[in-house]
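Hello, quick one for you while I still have it in my head. My current little project is about how a certain protein chain folds up. You're getting the sequence in one-letter code plus the fold written as tokens. Would you mind checking whether the tokens look sensible for this chain? Here's the protein in full, and shout if anything looks odd to you:
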Amino acid sequence: MRVFITGGTGLIGTAVVAELLGHGHTVLALARSDASARAVEAAGAEPLPGGLTDLDVLRAGVARADGVVHLAFGNDFSSAEAVARSVAEEGAAQAAMGEALVGSDRPYVTVSGTPWVPGRASDETDPVPTDGPVGGRGRAVMGVLALASRGVRSSAVRLPRTVHNEGQGGFAGLLTGIARRTGVSGYPGDGLMRWPAVHALDAAVLFRLALEQAPAGTAWHAVDDEGDTVRDIATVIGRRLGVPVRSVPDDTFGPLAPIFATDQPATSSRTRSELGWLPSHPSLLKDLENIRP
């Protein structure tokens, strides 16, 4: 299968590209810079120059592909306005690619987050949130899944709070960055809220399986660790960096503070049983031991 991918040079995307190429697919990857294009070529894929806001380029990529995997996101969390802008840009890109796929019966795998359900771990049947700081992402994903009624084999891989590799990535990576800047490995409140996690290489396998197998209109959970407490995560980070570990004010975490403070465990039982997904790489707490002081 020839696969068009956005976000193919990020921590997750790099793993997905390698997974696809390793299983006989060819890859056309969106590349927003010369450096990204070189990275795509070095990985064995073909670059398509352009960014997430270049909707005509996205449509051209879709036209050249047998299937689409969407991973790109602005990742600017510096302010509420920056987050809103990234969410809006991603939503427009997802809609444009979806419209280009209507009636083709081709697979379209998009990315989402695991939802929050009060009092229990969320599963694949729970709806994603459509309000709050990143509610627009949920609305965009629901739009992609709705394309199942219009001849698109759309599916969503829901990623947990942290997708990690060699101690980097996800919300745990943001905690590490804050600890480096402030000299304190902090957590919100009592730190007992739980964050699910998955290794990037395991997540990559699930994206491939969804592309190859997922029925139209379905959602899947890329969850290995169902929920480590933020205090436990911060404790490993603090030990690795040699800085104190303690509760810090919510505003330390900027516009993502409400999300950081939410207990959000998640399960992946259905994903494992129906798609045959079996994570095999290190857990988050073990992988954080790779953080360098």
User: Anything to note?
Assistant: The chain has a mean pLDDT of 95. The longest helix spans residues 80-101. Residues 8 and 14 are 5 Å apart (CA to CA). The radius of gyration is 18 Å.
